[in-house]
Every structure is written in structure tokens, then in C-alpha cells.
Design a protein that fits this description.
With 398 residues, the chain is an alpha/beta fold. The chain is built from 15 helices and 14 strands. The chain is globular, with a radius of gyration of 21 Å.
Length: 398
């Protein structure tokens, strides 16, 4: 079975075509600047160089058309017809309480996803646009929705209920949902294999650390707590997001700076986090460069970041009454050895001990635990696209 995995952002579309008979990626790419001047498609076939295809993409439907044309191109394509695409798996950010598993995208399901748009206004509408575009161009191909929030639906009430009047949960479903579920699920399964244990007998903390970041406590293969909340704004400091703050800051900023709710939310989502503290960049590579120059704000940014990560790990070790492995994944987690070492230096009391030579790696799977460590530390590159494809095959075969 060949599965096309689609991940739509507000002005971008990432894709992979995967042959699930051997999990081989036949082609992958990115359509960017959709609806903006200068839109283009970067397409990389299994064999051959990346091709840059420039052209107007006023809508996501146009972008999907570019993707399909590239997949079928006589020079750099990998299929002859869309009939060879057996299913499409769509990443959907927010499924609310409605969806605890992946599901076929029927009209009723799409309506339910649309109803969750208030909970993810930057993500769900874009996901829906991509679904609609694919349905128009491939009306007879089964479509499956794979939800970022689904993996976290196993969290108990004590982990997801906020300290607000309960009627607000009953009325508006205000609660912790969590995100990056596809990544946390994939990585925790692989970590159990590396431990040589049945996942039902494991306690694993997954640190998905990129421009967006979250930590998840996975006990017995199920999410029991996670750092992101009602929205992806809660939790760790991120590239431009503030993470956890005192909610009274809203009123303080409103009074002192005369800011509206919309303006404050813009600050918290787009001008805070690593960018806000460092005043350099939201890209941690740029911050690393500034650290080497002695930039004190850049150094402070990484100190704050690493401290927050370590605190969450400690909290989740307590929540599970122990931990077998701490796993680092995503862009920063997979590639920044100094961050991993600094975080792990806080965790000696748990039995974490790092072998610095093994930790000297980027983007590769690695057990970097030192001899004598009683809690393992792993780097495991995430593969959300493969997980989405696997979920899609499972649902279609049902």
C-alpha cells in the first residue's frame, strides 16, 4: 500500500509518499508560501536530486495539485497515476475530546474537526483546507485523520483538569489536551524496544524539543501527563512561545502597556520564548553562535530553557513514581549535545549519567548513557510521517 502523508500549515504543505510494504519513502517535499508571492515546491524523489518548482499557489488546492503533478512527473516522479496512491493520511492538530484514535475522514468527522478550530485556530483550519483539497483532487481515495491530541486522551482527570470552576470544563471542555502525540507515541515505542522491554512494563519520559516543544510522561505505553495544555502555548519555553507564565501577567500588561487580549496573545505566541529572552533569534543555532561570542542574554536563554526541561522531567519522574529512560527527539533534542548534557546534569539523583563521547552525535539514534547509569538516556529521531502512515494503513484495513 502506498500512503501519501499530508501536513498542512497556514501557508505550507509538507508531504511524503511512503511504500508501506517496506516503509520506503518514495518521495518527500514541501510546498511553501502558499497564497503568498514567491510560492514554490521543493520535491525530493527517492533517487535523484531535489527539484525546485516555482509557480503560483493561491490556495492549498493548487499546492496539492503541484504535489501530485511532481509525484507523476516523467523526469522526477515516482508514480504514473494517482490511482497508485491507496490512501492519504492527514495530520490534524486538535481533535478535542472527540477523537482518541485516528479515524476515516467522513463528512461528520470533518465537521467535528471544524468544531475544534477554536482550540487550535492557527492549525485546524489549515488542516481542513488540505483535507478538502485532497478530497477534490482524489475523491475516491480514502482519507484518514491522525490527531496530535489523540495519544494524550489516556491522561487521567488529575492530570488534565485545570484549577478552574468545573462548569467551565463541562461547558467549554477547557482542559489539558497536549500535542506532538504522534511523535511521543512513535518515540516511546522505539525507546521500549531499545530498553528490551515490553512497553507495558516501562516508564519513559519523551522530550520533543524543537521550535515547538513538549515533554510527555509515558507509562505502560500510555500518555499520563504532558506539558502542553489547552493550546500549544503552555509548558516549556519554545522558539517564540512563552510557555508557563503567571496568568495575572495578562492583567498587568493590559494595565501597564494598554494592550488588548489579542496583542498580549501575539506577544506570548510570536515574540516570547527564546526569541524574547535572547533578543537574537528563535533559532537555537543562532543562539548557540551568540553564546560562543559571550552574549549574556543568549547564555541566559539556554540556561532558562535547560532548567525548565529538567524541572518537567523531575515532575514526570514523580508522577510515574520512577523512570526507565529519558529520550530526546525533534530538531533541538536530536542535534544539540550541549543542551542534552546540561539537562542531564540536573538528573543525577534519578540515576542519569551521560557518556560525553556517546552524546557527541547529531540526528542519529543513540544510547548515550554512561556505564553505571540506572536510568537510560537516548537520542531517537522522531518520524511522525511514518507513524501517520502506519495509523492510516491500520484504519483503512479495518
Amino acid at each position: 500500500m502506498k500512503v501519501l502523508v499530508i501536513n498542512c500549515g497556514s501557508s505550507s504543505l509538507k508531504y511524503q509518499l511512503i511504500d508501506m510494504s517496506n516503509t520506503e519513502v518514495l518521495a518527500k517535499g514541501l510546498a511553501e508560501r502558499i497564497g503568498i508571492y514567491g510560492s514554490r515546491l521543493k520535491h525530493t524523489p527517492k533517487v535523484g536530486d531535489t527539484v525546485i518548482i516555482e509557480g503560483a499557489m493561491p490556495s492549498h488546492k493548487d499546492a496539492v495539485k503541484y504535489v501530485l503533478d511532481a509525484l507523476m512527473d516523467k523526469d522526477y516522479g515516482v508514480i504514473q497515476s494517482t490511482d497508485e496512491i491507496n490512501a492519504v493520511g492527514h495530520r490534524i492538530v486538535h481533535g478535542g475530546e472527540e477523537f482518541s484514535t485516528s479515524t476515516l475522514l467522513t463528512d461528520d468527522v470533518i465537521a467535528a474537526v471544524d468544531a475544534c478550530s477554536d482550540l487550535a485556530p492557527l492549525h485546524n483550519p489549515a488542516n481542513l483546507i488540505g483535507i478538502d483539497a485532497c478530497k477534490q483532487l482524489m475523491p475516491n481515495t480514502p482519507m484518514v485523520g491522525v490527531f496530535d491530541t489523540a495519544f494524550h486522551q489516556t491522561m487521567p482527570g488529575k492530570a488534565f483538569i485545570y484549577g478552574l470552576p468545573y462548569e467551565l470544563y463541562e461547558k467549554h471542555k477547557i482542559r489539558r489536551y497536549g500535542f506532538h502525540g504522534t511523535s511521543h507515541s512513535f518515540v516511546s515505542k522505539r525507546a521500549a524496544e531499545m530498553l528490551g522491554k515490553d512497553i507495558k512494563d516501562t516508564k519513559i519520559i519523551v522530550c520533543h524539543l524543537g521550535n515547538g516543544a513538549s515533554i510527555c510522561a509515558v507509562k505502560g505505553g500510555e500518555s499520563v501527563d504532558t506539558s502542553m495544555g489547552l493550546t500549544p502555548l503552555e509548558g516549556l519555553i519554545m522558539g517564540t512561545r512563552s510557555g508557563d507564565i503567571d496568568p495575572a501577567i495578562f492583567e498587568f500588561l493590559h494595565k501597564k502597556e494598554k494592550l488588548t487580549i489579542e496583542e498580549i496573545m501575539d506577544i506570548l505566541n510570536k515574540k516570547s520564548g527564546a526569541l524574547g529572552i535572547s533578543e537574537v533569534s528563535s533559532d537555537f543555532r543562532d543562539i548557540e553562535d551568540e553564546m560562543e561570542k559571550g552574549n549574556e542574554k543568549a547564555i541566559l536563554t539556554m540556561d532558562v530553557y535547560n532548567y525548565r526541561v529538567a524541572k518537567y522531567i523531575g515532575a514526570y519522574a514523580a508522577a510515574m513514581n520512577g523512570v526507565d529512560a529519558v529520550v530526546f527527539t525533534a530538531g533541538l533534542g536530536e542535534n544539540n549535545k550541549d543542551m542534552r548534557k546540561d539537562v542531564c546534569d540536573y538528573l543525577g539523583y534519578l540515576g542519569v549519567k551521560v557518556d560525553e563521547e556517546k552524546n557527541n552525535c547529531r540526528g542519529t539514534e543513540r544510547d548515550f548513557s554512561a556505564e553505571g547509569a540506572t536510568v537510560k538516556t537516548f537520542v531517537i529521531p522522531t518520524n511522525e510521517e511514518l507513524m501517520i502512515a502506519q495509523e492510516t494503513v491500520t484504519i483503512v484495513n479495518k
